[in-house]
Design brief:
The protein is of the alpha/beta class. The chain is 50% helix and 7% strand. It has 23 helices and five strands. Bound molecules: flavin-adenine dinucleotide.
């Protein structure tokens, strides 16, 4: 019996219907095609992944299905290894072409891609991969990278159209019941998933929300409203960077808010800049960007690590940020940087001890940004200025009235505002007066900031003189420059 010919669009971090080259090219071909997403068992059990990511993906697919209904299409969702899925297709169909975006992911997904590529070659299956956003595969250095980025961003948006499908496909690897139960629920405290919501957020940012973007960007409370909040949509591909770039650039309401517009457009470039670093060396998930820092000895106290993870360090801004991100999946850049800085410098922990914890909590987890940024804040790149944040100063400067702290640390509500940033400074009489006991109602500070800050500075700057660190600096500069300023 002759097998039915079929093309496949393999969705990865590109769960949307517009500005989508794989879908566009599948539509151009005369073969019928299926749109698939694979919840890959070995990939989703990697320690970077959490239920909130899977829920976001699942609900993004439902949003896509809703839009595809008219065309008698929907995404086919598999629960299996990619090799099993393509093995099944190969056995039962004549696969023409598989279309996908390039995945700028972790080592594990890269190795899976190599395995799939070998499989396709063996069976004469064509795999067409398209560039994801402004990230270029196979570059050896950054010559001409910026120029290319602008060219890509200014190219016309791909306007996808869809034919009606008549394929009847019976899924041999459907989502198991227990997995469905995990992903079907969607906590209200997270940003809602899918392209429809992505556009709502992007529009509200441009129309009004983002007009004071650059003024509030460092403030943990105000930034929740005035930042773009498009990161989960970009990370899972509900929006392309080009869609966001062109929409923001030409939005009339931002004409008179040039600081805001410039600020967010610059960061869209940083998005690709960081992923490009990771695309060149995805081993940054496991090892220091500057290998010389692998030799740095850390205290790695498990109690301190746990206190950080639980938001119980006794430093209100650290604890409020950790609890906010646990509950909502988002905090602003500065506070992410502060959390990592506190972990690695003040608590003297190896960055690897905390990197998956935050990866799991960030709804916008994007490996290409997460690992390089984490290491920048941990001071293990050897080329960036090491910034050791003082959480009390951050708190006083950026949440002066303590409203963010009070939202996330209700136990501090009893105490006068003047002590909110440093509750341990209350005398025992005051503690009695306000019925608030430090170490009982809220932890005492886990470290002495002055001492831990000095020790950290001596350690990290001292290590910069190590010959291996210096040698590595040269290699990193050759590969990843032009360097960019990426603080707020
Ligand atoms: C330790 C650490 C880990 C991080 N992990 C992630 C991550 O996993 N995923 C992620 O998207 N961002 C990450 N960031 C970068 C940044 O904090 C978030 O992109 C930003 O807070 C997202 O909110 P927004 O969409 O409102 O950003 P906006 O300020 O509105 O910016 C718009 C977009 O630009 C990009 N962007 C903004 N700031 C940066 C930056 N500093 N570097 C690179 N791209 C940027 C993001 O795609 C963002 O959505 C991390 C930062 C740090 C310090």
């Amino acid at each position: 019996m002759t097998k039915q010919t079929l093309d496949i669009v393999w969705l990865k971090r590109d769960i949307r219907l517009d500005d989508h080259a794989p879908l566009y090219n599948a539509e151009l071909s005369s073969n019928p095609y299926l749109i698939i997403y694979i919840f890959e068992t070995s990939i989703i059990s990697h320690p970077d992944t959490s239920d909130r990511h899977l829920q976001f993906v699942y609900h993004s697919l439902l949003d896509m299905d809703n839009q595809l209904k008219y065309y008698n299409r929907s995404t086919t969702k598999f629960y299996a290894e990619a090799i099993e899925v393509f093995g099944y297709f190969e056995e039962h169909y004549q696969i023409g072409t598989v279309y996908s975006h390039e995945e700028n992911g972790i080592q594990k997904t890269w190795q899976r891609d190599l395995e799939i590529s070998r499989f396709f070659r063996k069976h004469g299956i064509v795999w067409k991969e398209y560039q994801r956003d402004g990230v270029i595969r196979g570059v050896k250095n950054r010559d001409g990278w910026d120029k290319n980025w602008y060219i890509t961003m200014n190219q016309p948006i791909i306007e996808n159209s869809f034919s009606k499908s008549s394929i009847a496909f019976s899924n041999p690897f459907p989502l198991p019941k227990n997995f469905l139960l995990r992903v079907q629920k969607y906590p209200k405290s997270f940003q809602p998933a899918g392209s429809t919501n992505a556009w709502k957020y992007l529009k509200s940012f441009c129309e009004k929300r983002g007009h004071f973007y650059h003024i509030h960007i460092s403030k943990p409370r105000q930034s929740r409203e005035s930042c773009g909040r498009i990161s989960p949509y970009l990370a899972w591909g509900n929006l392309s960077i080009r869609q966001a770039y062109q929409f923001i650039k030409s939005h009339p309401n931002l004409e008179s808010h040039k600081g805001a517009r410039r600020g967010i457009l610059t960061r869209l470039k940083w998005h690709c800049h960081f992923i490009q670093k990771f695309e060149v060396e995805c081993a940054y998930e496991y090892r220091c960007i500057n290998k010389g820092y692998e030799l740095l000895q850390r205290d790695n106290s498990p109690d301190k690590l746990n206190a950080w993870k639980e938001g119980m360090t006794g430093y209100p801004m650290v604890d409020a940020c950790m609890r906010a991100v646990k509950q909502t999946g988002w905090i602003n850049f500065r506070m992410r940087a502060m959390l990592v800085s506190f972990l690695c410098h003040h608590l003297d922990q190896d960055w690897k001890n905390g990197v998956y914890h935050l990866a799991q909590l960030f709804l916008d987890y994007e490996p290409g940004i997460h690992y390089p940024q984490f290491q920048m804040q941990a001071g293990t790149t050897g080329i960036n200025t090491v910034r050791i944040y003082n959480p009390v100063k951050q708190s006083i400067d950026h949440d002066t009235d303590g409203s963010f702290l009070l939202k996330w640390l209700p136990e501090l509500q009893k105490i006068p505002v003047q002590y909110i940033h440093e509750p341990w400074k209350m005398t025992s009489i005051e503690q009695e007066l306000y019925d608030f006991r430090i170490s009982h109602d809220y932890p005492a500070p886990i470290v002495d900031l002055k001492e831990s800050g000095k020790a950290a500075r001596d350690k990290i700057w001292g290590h910069r003189k190590h010959p291996l660190v210096k040698q590595e600096q040269q290699r990193i500069l050759r590969t990843h420059t032009r360097r960019q300023k990426t603080t707020d």
